[in-house]
Amino acid sequence: MIRIALDVMGGDNCPAAAIEGAVRATKTMEDIELILCGKEAQIKAELDKLGADTERISILDAQEEIDCHEQPTAAIRRRETSMVKALNLVAKGEADAVVSSGSTGALLAGATLIVKRIKGVKRPALSPLLPTVKGGWIMLIDCGANTDCKPQYLQQFSVMASTYMQSVMGIDKPRIALLNNGSEAEKGCELTKAAYKLLKEAPINFVGNCEARDVLSGEYDALVCDGFVGNVVLKYTEGLAGSMMTMLKTELTADLRSKLGAALSMNAFRRFKKKMDYKEVGGAVLLGINGCVIKAHGSSDAKAFASAIKQAELFSNGNVNPKIAEAIAELPEEE
Amino acid sequence: MIRIALDVMGGDNCPAAAIEGAVRATKTMEDIELILCGKEAQIKAELDKLGADTERISILDAQEEIDCHEQPTAAIRRRETSMVKALNLVAKGEADAVVSSGSTGALLAGATLIVKRIKGVKRPALSPLLPTVKGGWIMLIDCGANTDCKPQYLQQFSVMASTYMQSVMGIDKPRIALLNNGSEAEKGCELTKAAYKLLKEAPINFVGNCEARDVLSGEYDALVCDGFVGNVVLKYTEGLAGSMMTMLKTELTADLRSKLGAALSMNAFRRFKKKMDYKEVGGAVLLGINGCVIKAHGSSDAKAFASAIKQAELFSNGNVNPKIAEAIAELPEEE
After folding, report:
1. Cα dist from B330 to B121, B178, B185, B195, whole Å
2. What is the average per-residue pLDDT within A174-200?
3. Contact assignment for A133 to B254 by CB distance below 8 Å
4. Average of per-residue pLDDT across A171-179
5. What strands lie across the sheet with A205-211, from one edge to the other?
6. What is the model's pLDDT at position B279?
7. Which of A90, A141, B95, B166 is the most exposed place for a label (fewest CB within 10 A)?
8. CB-CB: which of A190, A215, A251 is closest to B271?
9. Positions in chain B whose pLDDT score sits under 50
10. Do B261 and A265 count as a contact with CB atoms less than 8 A apart?
11. Do the beta carbons of residue A128 and residue A234 sit within 8 Å?
């Protein structure tokens, strides 16, 4: 049985969406047990409303919740919050995984300080998956956990991403690239130039530099970068997709003929939107932590929560962390 | 008269597109003289073919051209190339501006080493304009000239961008933001945290941090970042726009109804494409150089060249460089 602690507070549609997601997940996954962390009375009422079978669902009462505007390290000192209680379950070995749609900063801080890092891991990394034009997914590592990185961190990220894509996504030899400002080996800023050399030495299928125009090309399975750049790429993806759809919509509604055409193509637009949808793949996994920590999107609905729970199940069954620990131990130490 | 040296070689559609763009430009702009740099016989033949009025068009013969794969500093030592000849015209005061669609690296190196920097400018910056959802433009500075930046460089970039957006784009109080990984003042990596303080002190309308999701929101007129991050954003814009259109096209052609709808909306898609089109605004200007240096897109057509020439005219008439020199001189020196 995989035991997953679900922080039902913190997201835009919480707790209802998280609880509904939990119920859906237990219906389709036979090997999970869920521990819902949040206000017990509220959770019970939601479960009743859904007429849920609660055989593999338990509740851990937590009367407080972390607000996304709180300073992260201060927030995680509040032990009565649903997020901290969920993290503590993993720290104590009472759960294998945490799924939360709450404050990213608090979850990062809590994972690092409460659950702690895998031995040898210098920095945990926030690693979301983006949809590619070929219908697959690319992992972007790191996306905000570490704004200033040393080359060795990027080497560790590459090993963690490769392990994840292999063990969870089932890719035989994940193609790992370095996000850089040119495709040639000698290109880059000080960080990427040094990281390039270390990635070449890492026990991964390193395929060289990837320029930003090729991020979603489907030619790569994971892209390594520092957390500042990754955060920019991740947020820009959201923003640009939205901006482009706004611009396109303006044009599609500018004349009657286009309006009619757009109405006819509505299903195609829906399918496109679904393809661009993070809800299909779960959340961003925090790699390098001694347990599975999944950050679900703040606006997750029930389906997105169910996907994130599925991701936690795959992560735990994939034996990801022991493999990461082993691979990290084999990397040469920083001189 | 504004004298503009046009490197007619180096781009995908060169020299034909550059020469046709030059002819178009002289027809619509009364106050420019163009010096076409490239193979004289070829240029003459193109001009004849177009039946062009060459009263304000002259030719500077250059038998060599720079390939985009050449090492930049080596490339610009080749004095017989069209790009170097064009740059030398500005260096000698025989032209006010250079427009080239050739190698970005060589143009950066040549501008810095041949035309030279404005007094006090630490680093010139490559500064393209991106279309916003509100129909305006945002300058992204720097986009690749400087992969590793000091905070003071970013302060200078902010002043140069503000001057450009005011003098060339006619924006009264350009809203200058810092591209960062959070909107709060204390957010950022080491570089952006330090730069934030310097931008606050700069004589500009600094409006704070901009998260990547808001780059194209139309809320900002210029966005300051280091050249590595700017390069990633610029190339990702190209790539993501292309990737999204590919994904959308796949869906729009997946069933007959959508196909029909897409056919009806064709004009809307065309208008959208035009809006996303860099050709409307010219090229990326290299700010901080003692002259006007415009990098036209490698795939520029005649229209894009005409736009870049227009941009050079506006730049020169806008008295941008003396204003930049004055503003830079007033910034406190780095301690």
Report:
1. 12, 21, 25, 17
2. 96
3. no
4. 98
5. A129-131, A137-141, A222-224, A175-180, A205-211
6. 63
7. B166
8. A251
9. none
10. yes
11. yes
3-state secondary structure of A327: helix
Q: Token digits for A313?
A: 């199940």
φ/ψ bin of B265: left (φ > 0), alpha (ψ from -120 to 50), beta (otherwise): alpha
Contacts of A216 in chain B (CB under 8 A): 239-240, 243
Nearest residue in chain A measured CA to CA from B134:
A247
Contacts of B136 in chain A (CB under 8 A): none
Is B38 within 8 Å of B9 (Cβ atoms)? yes
Residue of B nearest to A189 (CA): B147
CA A178, CA A223: separation in Å to the nearest integer?
6
Question: In this structure, are residues B124 and B108 in contact, taking their beta carbons and an 8 Å threshold?
Answer: yes
What is d(CA B315, CA B285) in angstroms, rounded to the nearest whole number? 9
CA distance A157 to A140: 10
Whether B335 contacts B198, CB under 8 Å: no
Q: Which amino acid is located at B5 in the chain?
A: A
Which of A147, A181, A248 comes nearest B189 by C-beta?
A: A147
Distance CA A179, CA A156 (A): 15
Strand partners, A97: A4, A292
Query: pLDDT (tens digit, 9 = 90+) per residue, A241-291?
Result: 788 888 888 889 999 999 999 999 988 888 887 777 666 677 999 999 999
Chain A residues near residue B275 by CB distance under 8 angstroms = 247, 251
Give the C-alpha separation, B327 to A99, whole Å: 51
Q: Check CB contact under 8 Å for A268 and B254.
A: yes
Q: Residue B169 corresponds to which tokens in the numbers above?
A: 């784009």
B288: nearest Cα among B98, B147, B111: B111
Question: Inter-chain contact B211–A235, Cβ cutoff 8 Å?
Answer: yes
The pLDDT tens digits for B138-175 are: 999 999 999 999 999 999 999 999 999 999 999 999 99
Q: Name the residue with higher pLDDT: A85 or B282.
A: A85
Report whether B296 contacts B101 (CB < 8 A). yes
**3-class DSSP assignment, residue B185:** coil
Residues of B in contact with A265 (CB under 8 A): 252, 257-258, 261-262, 265
Task: State whether B262 and A265 contact (CB < 8 Å).
Answer: yes
Which residue, among A147, A270, A273, would best test binding to B if mutated, counting the most B CBs under 10 Å from its CB?
A: A147
Residue holding tokens 């060589």?
B106
In which residue are the tokens 């990837």 written?
A: A210
Q: What sign does the CA torsion over A83, A88, A89, A90 have?
A: positive
Q: Are B251 and A268 a contacting pair at CB < 8 A?
A: yes
Sequence letter at residue B261: G
pLDDT in tens, A294-305: 999 998 999 999
**Which residues in chain A touch residue B227, judged by CB atoms under 8 angstroms apart?**
181
